[in-house]
Amino acid sequence: MTDSFAIYRARVIQRHRHLKWKVLDPLEATLMVLCGVCIGGFTLCVGLDVLTRTVGHPWLWLQQATTAFFAWGVFIGMAAATRRHDHIYLAEITKRMRGSRRTAIETLNRLVVLGVALFMVWFGFKNAMLDLGSYRMPWLIPLTVYTGIVPISGALTALFCVEQIINGYRGGYEGPEDSELIAGEPTE
Amino acid sequence: MSTGATLVVMGGLFLGLGYMGVPVAFAIMAGVLVATAFTPVSFASMIGQMFHGIDSEALLAVPFFLLVGELMSSANVVYRMIALAQTLVGHLRGGLAQVVTLFSMFFAGISGSSAADVAVLSRTVAPEMDREHYDRAFTAALIASASTMANLIPPSIMAVVYGATGFVSIGGLFLAGVVPGVMIGLGLMVYSYFFGPLGRMKPRARLIDMFVAARGSALPMVIPVIIMGGILTGWFTPTEAGMVAAAYILIVLIPALNPSHIRRLPGDFMYTGLLYSLPLTAVAGASAFGWMLAYLRGPDTVAEYISLYAGTDPRMIMLLLVLLFVIVGDFIDAVPAIIIFMPIIQKLTKVGDINPVHMGVVIITTLVFGLITPPYGLSLLVASKFVGVPFGQALVRSLPLYVVFFFTIAFTVLFPDVVLWLPKQLLPQSVGCFPNPSGSGFICPK
Fold first, then answer.
1. Mean pLDDT in chain A?
2. How many CB atoms lie under 10 A from the CB of residue A187?
3. Which of chain B's residues have a Cβ under 8 Å away from the Cβ of A30?
């Protein structure tokens, strides 16, 4: 029986270490802290919103802060999950593969993610610039404050993809954690 | 390229890339972006749609129900609820299997996530079952099946997502989920009693032991009362109820029951912060997919096809939708599936003049079944991983448990009055009832 819960909670996860550059570890740790700040921030905002409304003096800006924390949290988490291999997958067929076949498919998978991430960077940036002229009531905060996270998340995701592609190409994608998911099933 | 071909390319790319190992959110977006290239729609608007997909007030409840589950699981205060379940059903045949199911029913009232339930049970009861020589494959199958109740018994993340995207009352969906949720629980208990492993027979707990266990778990058991009580009395929205439950755990439960855990709270927040982003990035991608699907008139095509066989008969429409979602749930995660297919569901709800809450609970019940079916049975995958048994073995042991789900789904489709009874009593407006202008009570549509 495995207790694999603790390793998933680390600020810098050690699984897939061979696909990571040490120099980007502080970035992963920072993103994890920001994930905590975002959920903590909007928990506090919703709490204060209920409180101020109950006492009859609602702070309307809290709702705007809540949605900002929420949206930023989602897109920061998206980037962090890319580095930590924590995304939701339909299948992880490559874990049963070895050698050049695995390298080809893993690289292709990351190129797809890289492509989507670059679309997020370019078109997300264009959207964010357009949103400078749109405002959210009642405090007239530019929408860019919310949507600006999309290109940032795209850039971070792209960076982590490049990191994994280079390391995977150099040293192969196989790692000791491959056995975790297939739980004793024979590998190809 | 014709509309139909674009739809096929978009869906095919999503599934193909997804099964090749591309993360769901990115596989969906890749499909959408390629399809966009064949339409006059701009790429910028599709990237913008990703953001708008998550920019919803109701979806804010998702992180709170995950946070509640994670805090309860991480702080180890769930042991008290397991102890209560043990005194209540531990003496029955297959005692620990009964405990798993009853505890899941309790925990489902606290957490909205099946994954949290699987994590808690795999860490707590599964080692105990191992010591009592329960077959590991059965343990994984039972834990996975029982964890599905977390998405039916309120609070439920699937209900939040369904309500938020389909503009259906989340409170109504919560209440309507109680009947199928409890039916699955009872079904699993009956199966374990008659057909499951015998386990170690234990004497029936004394009344005083039950009382002590109930007192010990009283603090955690307040959480469902806070959540549903707050929503039903109109004090809180589901989002606020989730926040109040999280605050209760942080301010009352952990300091009272496990004060040493306080220093680990920043870690819990970081991890939950990451955790909630995972389904929601899929939501972001799926909402762009759903938008493109609607743009390409996919819902009309599917609705016409289903109407061709079912006419406007609500039961036939729902049965065909169940069939569709059993297949969909086998291949796609439930949250993106709800968003992608929402335009089709809404169209067919109108065609069959079906109560939206009833339709919602039927779809959610069908999708929770997908959590234990191959190839993408997420709960079964996670349970088999944590329990340490090959997925194939766990799958074989879960096959007989499918009967419980078939029965529950059929009941939910065929007996809307039973399923909607609770929301009609406690939250009548949620199911379309309106106050009687000439007196007390409500008038409800047939």
1. 86
2. 11
3. none
On the question of pLDDT at A39 being above 90, the answer is: yes
Q: Do B277 and A3 touch (CB under 8 A)?
A: no
Within 10 angstroms of residue B100's Cβ, the number of other Cβ atoms is 30
How close B140 comes to chain A (CA, Å)? 11
Q: What is the pLDDT of residues B217-266, one digit of tens each?
A: 999 889 988 888 888 888 888 888 889 999 999 999 999 988 998 998 99
- Residue B377: closest CA among chain A residues belongs to which residue? A90
Interchain pair A81, B388: CB under 8 A: no
At B91-118, the pLDDT tens digits run 999 889 999 999 999 988 888 878 878 8
SS3 B39: coil
Q: What are phi and psi of B48, to 5 degrees?
A: -65, -35
Beta strands in A26-113 (DSSP E): none
Which residues lie below 8 Å from residue B140, measured CB to CB, with a gap of 6+? B126, B380, B383, B384, B386, B387, B389, B393, B394, B397, B398
pTM of the model: 0.84
Across B175-189, B243-257, B284-298, which has the greatest mean pLDDT? B175-189
**Which residue stretches of B167-297 are H helix?**
170-176, 178-194, 207-216, 218-232, 238-248, 254-257, 265-295
DSSP A141: E
Helices (H), B249-297: 254-257, 265-295
Decide if B104 contacts B121 (C-beta within 8 A): yes
DSSP 8-class letter at B22: -
Task: Say which residues have a Cβ less than 8 Å from residue B261's Cβ, sequence separation at least 6.
Answer: B74, B75, B76, B254
Residues 40 through 59 of chain A touching chain B, CB cutoff 8 Å? 40, 42-43, 46-47, 49-50
The answer to whether the CB atoms of A81 and B47 lie below 8 A apart is no
DSSP annotation of B420 reads T
User: Does the beta-carbon distance from A184 to B390 stay under 8 Å?
Assistant: yes
Q: Which residue is it, tokens 């997925």?
A: B391
